[in-house]
Amino acid sequence: TAASPTAAAPRTPPGSPRGWDGRPDGSPFPAAYRTDEGQPWVLPVVKKVEQMIANDNSLNHEYLPILGLPEFRANASRIALGDDSPAIKENRVGSVQCLGGTGALRIGADFLRRWYNGNNNTATPVYVSTPSWENHNSVFMDAGFKDIRTYHYWDAAKRGLDLQGLLSDMEKAPEFSIFILHACAHNPTGTDPTPDQWKQIAAVMKRRSLFPFFDSAYQGFASGSLDKDAWAVRYFVSEGFELFCAQSFSKNFGLYNERVGNLTVVGKDADNVQRVLSQMEKIVRTTWSNPPSQGARIVATTLASPQLFDEWKGNVKTMADRVLLMRSELRSRLEALGTPGTWNHITEQIGMFSFTGLNPKQVEYMVKEKHIYLMASGRINMCGLTTKNLDYVAKSIHEAVTKIQ
Ligand SMILES: Cc1ncc(COP(=O)(O)O)c(C=O)c1O
Question: Other comments (predicted)?
Answer without folding.
Answer: In eukaryotes there are cytoplasmic, mitochondrial and chloroplastic isozymes.
